[in-house]
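Predict the 3D structure for this chain.
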Amino acid sequence: MDASTASKATATGRPSLAPLRIGLLTDGRQDLENWQLALIDRILADDRFSLRAMIVCPPKVGAAPVAFRLAAAVERRTLGRQPVYRPKDPGFSAIASVTLGEQIGRDRGSELDLVLAISPLDLPQDAFSDLPFGSWQFSFSHAANADADWYGYHEVIAEKPATELRITVRRAGREDETLAMAEFNTKFSAVRNADFIKERAVTLAMRELRKLADARALTALPPPATMSAPRPPGLGKLLPYAASLGRNLLARGRQAVEEKLGIGAAPWVLFVGDGRAEDFDPRTSVLLEPEDDELRADPFLFPHEGETYVFYEAYTPSNTKAHIAVGRLVGNRLESVGIALKAEHHLSYPFIFRHDDGIFMIPETNRARRLEVWRCVEFPLRWELHATALEGQSSADSALFPFDGRWWLFTNLSEFHAYEDHCSELHVFEVDGPDLKWMKPHRNNPVVMGSTEARNGGRPFEQGGRLYRPSQRNQYGIYGYGLNIMEVEELDLETYSERCVRTIKPDFAPGIVACHHMDASNGRYIIDAMFADQANLRR
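Done. Predicted structure below.
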């Protein structure tokens, strides 16, 4: 299944509707940013939409401190450079361009269904609000004007655990409404923080446009707490930020050198304890002492012929290209059995399960740009490739399981230009089972967006007829900071909803700074964790 399959209107099985007529509001047609070009490309490529015009509007004016503009320009040139984005759709150059105040034309402007602002603009409150679906805006437009963009700085300077993105809509006679919201792990650099989230904003906007194209109605989220738009940072905040950024760059440079020398791999380890998936207490866990210099993550428990095996990602400080290892759990010890799966590329997240008379595994193979299902030939060390799917796509941490009479694939996809990231989008497919002969995408993929909840963090499990999904909680600039237990409240190809019922933080053992995966089976649970340094690992 290729990426375009999931985006076609016919995939919904619904009657064909007239395309949504969209206008883009911009402060000019020159020097569009990568994310703006990508958004235009994706709108043009989807037959549910008709991009009628680029409407040039007055830019938002205002003065930002000279010191900030200089510092931001330097950071942009050094840390914000991206590959050139080349529009893929030949229709891009044919989009009509008009200026606000001109007669847009009865066959175009007066027939728009909605407009979407892609620049910070100075518009009257009621401009375009009388369109059927109003005027849409990204929250990052509130932190920019014609001569400066300070989106992302406030969150980095204030050390916010996550940075928020919202899409709001303005309709006649209503307060501004939130259509969609997501939170993303705050980066160390404000420029990278903003650029990363703007790239994610393309996916979020396209999802909301597709939902509107199918339903022809808007559904708003509860109103947020009142928040004022941040101002450009002054010198008093800019100097400490610059010092912090410099320290971070030095630390990252040192880490890169250490990794090249084979001494800087992240020290992930495994803890095990007695308990159930729904209510285990990580404070009762015991460290599975590493053998030699082996580092371990993404563990899955697998009972087989009266014994419990652990399949996990394994690597060493001198070789971070991980393979899938397997050990036998004996009490609070892990006895090494061997290497279950090895490849030319990195492997992790060995999601292992039974079906009929077979044992299957879905390791993370995103560097191969496809999803792979392996079948066990001789347990536990001999496996053969059984099926593939999502060819050409970058998927990670996939889970394939039956629930309520149907098979489901939950996977984290990353469609990107400059910032590949598997922590921000959860995609759901109904499938036939491990053969993957057919796949039906969820109508609203990605069904979850945001790094605080989207990425899978272990095996989904049932309790009392309810489905629960462990997920990663990526915050504070740390990959894999913590875990969530999400209760899936609605699941079919038309709807999806879940809520967080539990959060697990990295506070259950001295010296750990992250924990991002768990599994449980037969009254035992296993969880991974990362120590701050090798000294804590060998405490």
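Residues 190-215 form the longest helix (26 residues).
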